[in-house]
Amino acid sequence: MFNSKFTIKNLNNLRDNMLGHLDIEFIQVENGLISAKMPVDQRTKQPMGLLHGGASLVLAETLGSVGALTHIDDNEFVPVGQEINANHIKSTRSGHVIGIAKPIHLGKTSHVWEINIEDEEGNLVCISRMTVAILKKKKKKV
């Protein structure tokens, strides 16, 4: 199930959080694929001037979580990151990195997403896999 109400425009309006702080911008949202770019600048670099591995994981977790959100009924369920891992393959010092997330498994209670992060030349910078728990929303007490 693809929830088409989540568009690039409305996802990019979510700025009062980590997305805005790191200037993560969604560039593609469709059935089975979501991508975003993130600048490599003073906010996302480690002291040696390279892209910080934690910043790569922020981008990966953002894509895995939002990817799961676009594939559930968000009136009934909420996606919650359960586990994430990453291998940092290549360093980068400037420009943008682009994360591309695709589902490996879309189950009723969990999703598994693979996220590749590339530099602007298409070189693989980081590969990540994320497990997302799909939880039933709690009913609000009146």
From TrEMBL:
It comes from the Bacteria. The keyword Protein biosynthesis does not apply. Residues 48-126 form the Thioesterase domain. Coiled coil: none annotated. GO terms for cellular component: cytosol. Keywords: Hydrolase. Pfam families: 4HBT (PF03061). One of its GO terms (molecular function) is 1,4-dihydroxy-2-naphthoyl-CoA thioesterase activity. Belongs to the thioesterase PaaI family. This is Hotdog fold thioesterase. It comes from Flammeovirga aprica JL-4. The lineage of its organism: Bacteria, Pseudomonadati, Bacteroidota, Cytophagia, Cytophagales.
